[in-house]
Amino acid sequence: MPLWGKFAICLLVATGSFRLSAQDLSLEALAERLERLERDNERLRAEIAELRRQLETARASQPGELEERVEIHERRIAEQAQTKVEASQRFPLRVTGMALFNLFLNSRGSGGADNPPLAARTPGPRSGGATLRQSVIGLQYQGGNTLWGGKVRGSLLADFFAGAGDPLGQQARIRTASIEIEWPTRSLLAGQEKAIFNPREPNSLAQVGVSPLTGAGNLWRWQPQVRFEQRFRVAEGTRLAAQVGLLQTSEDVALVPAEYASTVSRRRPGLEGRFLLSHALDEERRVEIAPGFHASRSQVAGSSVPSRLVSFDWFANPWRRLEFTGVLFRGQNLGHFGAPRQGFVIRKDVVTPVRSRGGWGQFTFLATSRLSFNLMAGRHDDRNADLLPGMVGKNTAWGANAMYRLAPNVVVGLEALQVRTEYLGTGLRINNHYDLALAYLF
Q1: How far is CA 253 from CA 110, 247, 248, in A?
Q2: Nearest to 230 by CA among 272, 182, 198, 278
Q3: Is residue 77 part of a domain?
């Protein structure tokens, strides 16, 4: 065989041996990879088995946990279905208020009113009756985010306390209303509310058409206003809130001598502020104190009459079953806040502001989750030297009530209140008021 043939045969054998060796190497790598994957699968199957065992153990130790969670979610869904009200703009809306039935009795000093803030100057017959005109109905609404991420919320509350007060002579009226934009540390509100310096209220189901202790230290009248609030965190559990705003005062022309009625500017702007310091003792107890002020002017008989006030209000419950609430004030020309009639007097075309001081306080005892007792008292004292004969020099009210929840949304209340009014030149007049109330909250 020629030499070149021998070389070709050797080359073929060598090439075939190389290809076989490469193929053998690929099969070995593939087998190794398959073996490694099989080991990984075995390890994963063992881990899954262990997880299943732990899950079965947890279910055995807490057999009702899943069922309880399902039940909680079902209750929440049902509650949302009950409270859901559809709004045209598709934002959350809730109906709130109460149907309130009052059965009342007055002594001879009522002057014919259902629940008079002042004892009548001339005694009359005892009076009593029943009414639903203090029932309240309203809406609470909450919108989406607005300017700079603020959240919009507000309310509108109305009652039927306007009109003649006869069973078929009652008219609806706006009590309070607000549109508020709230950010994490500040808020802006426009609406009709109590004065900024006096946001607190005594607890009562007998006096709802007007605030409890009206004319006896509670300057309550709801008036249009715009206010801004800035909140600060001072320390753990301690916060400071500063409120300032413009409020529209309203003069009662009927209380001005007829010859000067046409000179009264009925609506005037006023500047108000309040600074709240609050400290939480724990989850159930806290202490709050707040000084406040008001400044405005009344225009009458060609004169500008200053209205000035400084106040101090508080809330404290050092024991979780006992609460102490109240406010003190001093100022002049306060008739536009629901004070006892006069804010100023006119003598021979000279207008003089009436200087006043007063306040109210209330102790609340939370006997049980259903039963509470309230003791309240208040006084509005005008300086006699600023008054004319026959005007109210001092008006004091004190009383007590008990409220019991027959059901979560049904409350029965029993109240007794005495009003003691001192007229200059006439003397002291007294009216006793007794009230049995039944309220259905919705």
Answers
A1: 23, 19, 16
A2: 182
A3: no
Query: What's the domain range around 213?
Result: 85-441
Per-residue pLDDT reduced to its tens digit, 336-380: 998 777 899 999 889 999 999 999 999 999 999 999 999 999 999
Tell me the whole-structure pTM to 2 decimals.
Answer: 0.79
- In this structure, the answer to whether residues 19 and 118 fall within a common structural domain is no
CA–CA distance, 324 with 321 (Å, rounded to integer): 10
pLDDT in tens, 291-324: 999 999 999 999 999 999 999 999 999 999 999 9
The rounded distance, in Å, linking the Cα atoms of 295 and 303 is 16
152 shares its domain with 224? yes
Is the domain of 349 the same as that of 311?
A: yes
User: How many domains would you assign to the chain?
Assistant: 2
CATH classification of the domain holding 205: 2.40.160.10
Nearest-angstrom CA–CA distance, 179 and 227: 11
DSSP string, 71-118: HHHHHHHHHHHHH----TT---EEEEEEEEEEEEEE-TTSTT-SS-SS
Which comes out higher in pLDDT, residue 329 or 10? 329
